[in-house]
Predict the 3D structure of the following.
Amino acid sequence: MRTPLIAGNWKMNGSAALVEEFGRVFTDARLPASLDVVILPPFPYLDAARHAFADTVLRLGAQTLNPLHSGARTGEVSGNMLKEFGVAYALVGHSERRQLYREDDEAVHDRLLAALSADITPILCVGETLEERDAGKTMEVVLRQVGYVMARLEPDQRARVIIAYEPVWAIGTGRTATPRQAQEVMAGIREYQAGFDRELAAGLRLLYGGSMNAGNAAELLAQPDIDGGLVGGASLKVDDFLAICQSAG
Ligand code: PEP
């Protein structure tokens, strides 16, 4: 049985006040008994979030990390630093990082290994652009992104990876993939993983991301291969994010 997971990616948004608000609201929130919930705030808020979330179900995630443990990498943050601040999850390969910071599959793989070696659960983000979808290349692109990383891991490492399918055309656009479109791709990812190991594929947690909100979450989360959501914009409003979490029961 796969435990559902809802992760809120604040991107370069939020404030100390928002951290406090989430801590307050989630302290008394009614949530499904079996659910993991993660907030990924910008780095400067991690320490405050660690304290504000201490009595809640909220766990902490990072939006990226550097492949190295330490060194001359101005502006970067490493996995072991994040771990010191209670970070349990890290995104790797978010499409904004792939596009705006030119992170290719190799860079994504290196970051994912860095997360694993710091004992942080990586959430590997994959997804096609609109042009790629229109050209009928969705599965080719998604399985290339998944395959590049997964094929280079040891079996025990593969079992620790969470995959988020986020069609690029659905991120921050208000245009959500239909439950059927999302399910189709995510079933394809699970089937691909089954080629390595059927048991591992059955336990693999797959998240959908791309304009998930309080109104469409339940239908998406009801799909057999969707085990949770990676939520951007709607994770900045505590009531909306809470409603998404509640629909994951
Ligand atoms: C994201 O950034 O991962 C995301 C899914 O954003 P949004 O929910 O705003 O589309």
In short: The beta strands are 5-9, 36-40, 58-62, 87-92, 121-126, 162-165, 206-209, 228-231. The chain is about 40% helix and 15% strand. The mean pLDDT is 97. The chain has one domain: 5-247.
